[in-house]
Every structure is written in C-alpha cells, then in structure tokens.
Amino acid sequence: MQDEYRTVARAGTHETEVNRSRFLCALAPAATEREAQDFVAAIRKEHADATHNCWAYVVGADASVQKASDDGEPGGTAGVPMLQMLLRREMRYVVAVVTRYYGGVKLGAGGLIRAYGGAVGEALDTLGTVTRRRFRLATVTVDHQRAGKVQNDLRATGREVRDVRYGEAVTIEIGLPDADVDIFRAWLADATAGTASLELGGEAYGDA
Q: Which residues of 89-126 are buried (b: 16+ CB within 10 A; e: fewer)?
C-alpha cells in the first residue's frame, strides 16, 4: 500500500471561458470506479444539452485504474490532458468531468488540450486538495475509570479517535502510523499503569 495519497477536498464545479466556449469542470472524490462512473453519468444527464462532456478518473492509491474519454472532441485533446493533469498533481480517488458549451470559435488541437487540462488544474486550485496517510487501525481497551483521561490525552496529542464503545470495558478505535506503534504502546502502558491493552487491526487511510 502507498504511504499516502492526495485527493480533492470536496465535490464542486469551477467554470472558465476560452474564446467564448464555456468549460465547466466538475470534480468529486470517488472511492471506486463505480462511483466515478456514476458521477460521470450524473453530470452528462445534468448537461445533456452541452456540446461535449469529457471525463477522466484515477482510482487507487497507486493509480491502478486510469480512464479518460474525449466524448467527440478530436482524439487525445480532452480526456487525456485532463487525466495527465490529475496525475501531474498526484491526485487519486478522484473523477473530473469537463462540460463544454461551444462558443463558435474553433480552438485547434493545442487550444483544446490547454483548455481541458487547464480547466481541471483551475478546479483543483479552487476546490483544494487533501492528503490522506496510511494508518494502522488499533483498538485500545481500558477500564471505565481511566477511559475519559485516555480519550482526552489522545485528542490532545492529535490522535484520531475513530470510534468509542462502552461495555464491560471501554474500547477506543484509533489510527496510528506504523512508525508510532511502539512509542504509543509504551505511552499507553505508562498512562494506564499497564492496565490497558492494545490490539492492532488492518490498514486504512485518514487525513494527514
């Protein structure tokens, strides 16, 4: 697994105009290829009257799925530059659709490449990006007496508390970078006089 990846901070749309043609770039996070395809379908439906709805997406922290479409523009002038912009910015789990409303002036191949790639770049700048880092999921089990202090200490040190469950004991699910596991284990033993347990689970990604 990759240690970290970048994706778009939120879904949204940014509009630019090039020689009277309107270019609307819609961006969204996409956890799976199906999500990306559904987003493309929704934008195509919303802008069914547009001249073109070109798209590109990258899914997988290692960019294992990459697809693009020119949707009727000359081959390689729309979807590919959009995809290249996403990859150049090291974006993952993201889908982009650029809707073009033709304004009457032909842009030529070079102009189209700049317009479609540029629309994605400007949208990324406007909507912002976030870095997600790989974490080890870990479960802390602690008695009720010490649970409140442990939770407060976790949050005070910037640890991400993902879930808290109350039963005979309190279980707190957190995310830990692999490099911090041994340090955290020692801290937990010290903070709870050795009464808490730490169980390591699978891996996931969270905000860096």
A: bebbbbbbbbbbbeeeeebeeeebbebbbbbbbbbbee
Mean pLDDT over 7-12 rounds to 92
**22 vs 53: CA distance, rounded Å:** 12
The predicted-structure confidence for 55-64, as pLDDT tens digits, reads as follows 999 999 889 9
**Whole-model pTM over 0.85:** no
Strands (E), 64-152: 65-69, 94-101, 129-142
159: Cβ–Cβ under 8 A, 6 or more apart, which residues?
174, 175, 176
Contact partners, residue 150, CB within 8 Å, separation at least 6 = 140, 142, 172, 188, 191, 192, 196
C-alpha–C-alpha distance, residues 14 and 26, integer Å: 7
Phi/psi of residue 170, nearest 5 degrees: -105, 130
How open is the CA angle 100-104-106, to the nearest 5 degrees? Answer: 80
Q: Which residues contact 166 (CB under 8 A, 6 or more apart)?
A: 144
